């Protein structure tokens, strides 16, 4: 290519890099705002987005997750956009490094999720079950979220009704939540065992497996974008030496 064509190609890629990372920056700001909203007014979030959001809220803390992801996207978007605009080799290399670290982390997380699903269930049980025992029935908002989850998803506790053994709710009411007995009362251990309502973790995991193709396609798309972003940033980085 002639020097003019090379310069035109460089300018085009630079502009695309700026626009792409500007979109990432704005997306990060949006997620950060939603995360703060969830932490400040989680009930409104539930009312708008319904039962699915309540299910997710119990598996991960959506507010903190959105805040963390939003902050990361803000940093990536700033490094990529400002680095391309100012043609800064330092910022472009930082952008490349951050995206590479995230890409490696995503690959590692995917492998761990496939290989150690049982371990994830064990870890969640250790974290969520104590909260169920302590807060269900005593914390109004926590109880409301779990009631919505268990009713709409048709599940009981994280694993099953035994999550409520020795809990505040059981000690106070002498029974399990009615969702653990297919909405029949009184929900005692015999009826809960006969009903065999599955835990919410298994239900959500089954939903994820059912939509594994969609999730895999989204993950592949994100990975492709990350690889493309790294390639473009490295192209700009190398071309700056020729200018």
Order of helices and strands: HHHHHHHHHH
Give the distance, in angstroms, between the N- and C-terminal Cα atoms: 15 Å
Helix content: over 70%
Mean pLDDT: 80
Subunit organisation of the chains: single chain
Report the strand count. Answer: 0
Number of helices: 10
Radius of gyration, taken over Cα atoms and rounded to an integer in Å: 24 Å
Largest sheet: none
Unreliable sequence segments = none
β-strand amount: under 5%
Subunit structure: Interacts with SLC19A2. Interacts with NTRK1/TRKA.
GO cellular component, one term: plasma membrane
Subcellular location: Lysosome membrane; Membrane
Protein name: Tetraspanin
Task: Give a brief rundown of this model.
This protein is an all-alpha fold.
Per-chain topology:
Blueprint: H1 3-40, H2 42-59, H3 62-86, H4 89-115, H5 117-135, H6 140-153, H7 168-173, H8 189-195, H9 200-210, H10 212-240
Helix pairs in contact: 1-2, 1-3, 1-10, 2-6, 3-4, 4-10
Describe it.
By secondary structure, the chain is mostly helical. The protein has 10 helices and no strands. The chain has helices at 3-40, 42-59, 62-86, 89-115, 117-135, 140-153, 168-173, 189-195, 200-210, 212-240. The longest helix has 38 residues, at 3-40. The relative contact order is 0.11. The model has no long low-confidence stretch (mean pLDDT 80). It holds the Pfam family Tetraspanin. Interacts with SLC19A2. Interacts with NTRK1/TRKA. This is Tetraspanin. Belongs to the tetraspanin (TM4SF) family. One of its GO terms (cellular component) is plasma membrane.
């Amino acid at each position: 290519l002639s020097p003019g064509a090379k310069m035109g190609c460089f300018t085009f890629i630079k502009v695309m890099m700026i626009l792409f990372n500007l979109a990432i920056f704005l997306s990060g700001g949006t997620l950060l705002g939603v995360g703060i909203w969830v932490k400040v007014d989680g009930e409104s979030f539930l009312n708008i987005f319904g039962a699915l959001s309540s299910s997710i809220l119990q598996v991960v803390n959506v507010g903190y997750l959105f805040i963390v992801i939003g902050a990361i996207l803000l940093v990536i978007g700033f490094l990529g956009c400002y680095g391309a605009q100012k043609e800064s080799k330092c910022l472009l290399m930082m952008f490349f490094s951050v995206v590479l670290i995230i890409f490696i982390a995503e690959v590692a997380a995917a492998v761990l999720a496939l290989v150690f699903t049982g371990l994830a269930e064990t870890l969640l049980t250790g974290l969520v079950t104590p909260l169920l025992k302590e807060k269900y029935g005593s914390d109004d908002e926590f109880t409301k979220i779990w009631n919505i989850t268990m009713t709409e998803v048709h599940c009981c506790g994280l694993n099953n009704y035994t999550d409520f053994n020795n809990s505040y709710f059981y000690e106070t009411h002498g029974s399990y939540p009615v969702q653990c007995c297919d909405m029949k009362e009184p929900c005692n251990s015999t009826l809960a065992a006969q009903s065999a309502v599955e835990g919410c973790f298994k239900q959500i995991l089954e939903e994820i497996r059912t939509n594994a193709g969609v999730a895999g396609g989204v993950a592949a798309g994100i990975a492709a974008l990350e690889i493309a972003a790294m390639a473009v940033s490295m192209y700009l980085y190398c071309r700056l030496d020729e200018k």
